[in-house]
Write a structure and sequence with these properties.
The complex is a heterodimer of chains A (283) and B (267).
Chain A lengths: L1 H34 L15 H8 L2 H33 L3 H13 L3 H12 L4 H10 L10 H25 L3 H9 L4 H12 L1 H16 L3 H5 L8 H9 L5 H23 L4 H4 L4
Helix pairs in contact in A: 1-13, 2-13, 3-4, 3-7, 3-10, 7-10, 8-9, 10-13, 12-13
Chain B lengths: L6 H29 L16 H8 L1 H34 L5 H13 L2 H15 L5 H25 L3 H9 L4 H30 L2 H6 L6 H10 L5 H32 L1
Helix pairs in contact in B: 1-11, 2-11, 3-6, 3-8, 4-6, 5-6, 6-8, 7-8, 8-11
Classes of the chains: A mainly alpha (283), B mainly alpha (267).
Amino acid sequence: MQSEQNREGFLCSLPVLALLAAIFVAPLLVIFGFSVMPGKTFSLLQAPTLENFATIVNQTYYQSLLWSLGLSFATVVILLILCYPLAFAMAKVFGVFANVITVLVVLTLFVSENIRLFGWVLVLMKGGLLSGGLNAWFGFQMDSLLYDVPAIVFGMVYVYLPFMLFPLVLGIAMVPEELRQAASDLGASRWTVMREIDLPLALPGILVGSMLTFVLCAGAMAESKLLGGQKVIVMADEIETAFTYGQNWPLGSALSVVLIVLIGFVAYFVLRRVDLDQILGKV
Amino acid sequence: MVIDVTRRQRIAFYLYAVIAMLFLYMPIIAVTLASFSKKRYFSFPISSYTTGWYAKSFDDLTIADLLWTSLSIALAVMAVCVIIGFFGALAYARYNWRGRRAFQRFLLLPIFFPQSVLGLALLLWFNFLGIIPTWHTAIVAHLVWIAPIATLVMAIQAYSFDPALEEAARDLGANSWQVMREVTLPLIMPGVVSAGLFSFLLSWGNFPLSLFTTGADLTLPEWLYAKMVSGYSPLVPAVGAMTVLGVTVLLAVALAVMWTFRRARSS
């Protein structure tokens, strides 16, 4: 019986595994290969070298990396604070209304990220919905809120909100109600219940949501381009420039490898502690 | 499970949810408003309204072309994702096999990956293989990210699946193919429909994966992005609003079909 399960499970996993081997693993190997080629070559058949990584350290590329990490960290913290009350309400208070919220949030995901960010440009620019409206109705003058670091964080908070919200909802839903009830019967205040029961038991959801948003932000580019006006150059930007204008595939590959290793490290660290069956609703 | 909260807390939670939804829909509202503004450069409050930009987009041959490209890619991605993801979901949730936990984690990797890096990696890979990128290669690029998502969506459905039903069918003399067609597929069907819908829509709106992998062809999101960074064009909000409308109509139809399907089955 178990051997049959092994065989059928393996057979069913084959198509998607074959697909990902051909279009996910293989391209990554090519990137790793190019990252150790001498600069500005387009062939994989040279003697390997570490000069691209030296370039990253010696030139200002590490600044972009720090910007990317800093912006991602800020976004994750803001998202945790903003999403927790909503996620709590969706898991514990709203009942059927939570489904309405879920559908509304998923709907926005299907509208291209570009269009939504462009919408924020229309809201936040000088003479846009916000400043134009305030000026026309209240006579309040204000400048454009765009093209600075807060605008980039704002854009990332907006775009990646669903990726924090849904894992949090799943995590909080895993907290058994009897336990919360028992704690408050024994005299725990609302804050104590949250600190001692909700947060530790919802931790898998919190971890997955934080990791997901962190990783997505670290590789994000559109927010800084459309809302940030290239005030800061983020990592994904540097990678794109190296590949396109720079025509330096090995350097771009080396930058990608740095990003990939970093993300892989975060993902491994988090996924090791999380049981996916439990989160996705296996009973 | 719903808990008891005071009336005040309940109101606060609902209010917070409404504000959050306003926040999520604000840019979409802004794009729609801007698409009706007559001025070449948008400013608010809008002084005069027009539907002219829509008429202009309809007449534009490039936009018809873009639509066709985006649609072809999305349909192809949907077809492949549903078929491959169906088996993937069974491996993910239904069978208790030896490599399952490793398989589950591996499948999540592409989803967590920065899409722009994935797109560039594929560009190098195509170059290595001697393939010239066109919209066909963009289908492949979308699959990297969307096939795992489709698998997950169907896996959630497959979790609620009772393996005893398959065994019962087999005991009653059904062969593997009959079990698959008569038992497994109908039970996972709602997941298959949502996964198909997800695949189509995520491909339709995708920009970072298309950017490096469509070669000389352009998809709608790519065109919109190019117009956005090169300066304002009044066609951008109009075309943007139309894609939003398209998505809404498609979802409404899908929901209606699913609803009638469920009603027909329960009665």
